[in-house]
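[recover] target loaded
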């Protein structure tokens, strides 16, 4: 059994080395591959990635900034694992938690979400982001029929055959509500497990804003109902 860890990257020169080392230092329960797609970063991210020579990772570069969803599509085309998970490069998520999702999916699920809010609000998560995420998850649950606590989580472990059956259309952060809605419409068996989470603010490079929230609502309605 093999896991494809997909890492979309955009302007993460401060964290990219660290997150790659954390992936490499994690003892996963299965074999894995790391596929990084640099989405036309304008800082020093590309130069850092070009300096990596390790057979455990494959790196691809976009010639123009296309968004997280587009980077995921590129990575999927070059991946070969039986399972797929997205790993953000910003250090908010702990690669060590991926084993929790692997163990859960082996119970017979098609997808497992790593919930940041399974046990309530993390100490360093702002109230605005917390309640915003809970609101978007509520709308998603009503539309999809799922019972999630964190629809927007980056950590979504999905079986390859399920992922291959879904056509991803969104280029930016609309990927999260889109994949959730399409998993529900495909009657996929979806579970959640609690994970660790270290929130960062906009001053630290957080990229999701109010426009993305409105796009999320649009995507929930579009992909759940039509």
């Amino acid at each position: 059994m093999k896991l494809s860890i997909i890492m979309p990257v955009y302007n993460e020169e401060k964290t990219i080395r660290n997150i790659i080392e954390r992936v490499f230092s994690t003892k996963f329960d299965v074999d894995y591959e790391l596929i990084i797609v640099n989405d036309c970063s304008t800082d020093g991210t590309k130069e850092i990635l070009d300096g990596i020579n390790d057979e455990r990772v494959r790196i691809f570069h976009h010639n123009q900034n296309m968004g997280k969803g587009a980077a995921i599509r590129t990575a999927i085309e070059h991946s070969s694992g039986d399972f797929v998970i997205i790993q953000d490069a910003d250090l908010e998520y702990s690669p060590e938690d991926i084993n929790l999702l692997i163990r859960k999916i082996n119970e017979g699920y098609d997808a497992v979400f790593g919930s940041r809010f399974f046990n309530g609000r993390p100490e360093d998560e702002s109230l605005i982001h917390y309640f915003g995420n809970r609101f978007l998850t509520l709308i998603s649950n009503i539309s999809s029929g799922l019972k999630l606590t964190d629809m927007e989580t980056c950590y979504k472990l999905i079986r390859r055959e399920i992922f291959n059956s879904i056509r991803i259309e969104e280029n930016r952060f609309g990927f999260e509500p889109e994949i959730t809605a399409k998993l529900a419409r495909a009657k996929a068996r979806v579970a959640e497990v609690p994970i660790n989470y270290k929130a960062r603010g906009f001053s630290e490079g957080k990229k999701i804003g109010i426009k993305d929230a409105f796009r999320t609502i649009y995507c929930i309605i579009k992909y759940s109902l039509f």
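[recover] notes: The first helix runs from residue 16 to 25.
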